[in-house]
Amino acid sequence: MMNILVPIGTSTNANQTLQYAVDFAESFGAEIYVMEVFNVSGKTGTLTNVSQKIADNSKERLKEIIGTVNTKDVSLKIASFNGELKDGLKEIDKGIGIDLIILAPRSNDIQEANYLGQTSGAIIKRTNIPTLIVPKGTGYKSFENILVAFKSGILRRKRILDPLIEIQKKHNANVNLLMVKTPGYSDDDLKINTALMDISSQLTFTENSTTYHGVLEHFQAKHPDLLCVFRRKRGFFKKLWEKSTISKTEFYAPVPVLVLSVKKD
């Protein structure tokens, strides 16, 4: 885990997320790229000047946020992009190779309607980069219990699990697997990847309407301080796939959530 990307939005708590990322990166010996994406369009004659001015302002703002954080010995670099978010992520990933994105949900307040907003929701569901969602105000600490929830144990590539395996080894964490049998599951879904079994200490089967409902049922019993789920079209975010925002009635977690990518189902 060498390169960690931290998208900085307009949140006044952006420095808290960045501090968590710095502490996390220090533990893993990783570098951090602080990213802000802006979208400027206009006539060719004026576009360059306007884009440069906004890019300069963006860098100054990011420097101010970085200045409020205890960076320790972690290398922090600025990465700004003019264009669409998904294009910016692809461009930066192509250039440096992003191992993990760390971001915050929209709000911790249960009264707030959305768990993820437009930007964070788009990152979660429109990219294939592993992402760690950290509740605002959360301080970095060792993970002791990790709950991995899924409806299909099929993983076509072992390296999908690399971020989870690295975290588990670093913290010597207990990994509990929660296999949620949902309506329409197949016998193949019950075949759990051996690499996943190798790092786990317990496997629980449950039947629920969705993977999230399975997590809700077992969350208190497992006491996880990290929830791990898979990003795939018929996986954890199935019903939420077509929109960017995710409401708290559909998903909410009071602990960090590691989202791993599965490109093919």
Account of the 3D structure:
35% of the residues are buried. It contains 7 helices and 12 strands. The longest helix has 24 residues. The chain is globular and about 60 Å long. About 5% of the residues have low confidence. 33% of the residues lie in helices and 24% in strands. A 10-stranded mixed beta sheet has the order 3-2-1-4-6-12-10-7-8-9, with helices on both faces. A two-stranded antiparallel ribbon has the order 5-11. The two termini are 25 Å apart. It has 265 residues and is an alpha/beta fold.
Largest sheet: 10 strands, mixed
Shape: globular
Low-confidence stretches: 107-114, 239-243
Order of helices and strands: EHEHEHEEHEEHEHEHEEE
Cα distance spanning the termini: 25 Å
Helix content: 25-40%
> Total strand count, please?
12
| SS class | alpha/beta
Give the rounded overall mean pLDDT: 80
Rg (CA only): 19 Å
The spatial strand order of the largest sheet comes to: 3-2-1-4-6-12-10-7-8-9
Count of DSSP helices?
A: 7
* DSSP strand content: 15-25%
Task: Kindly list the characteristics that best describe this protein.
10-stranded mixed β-sheet; 265 residues
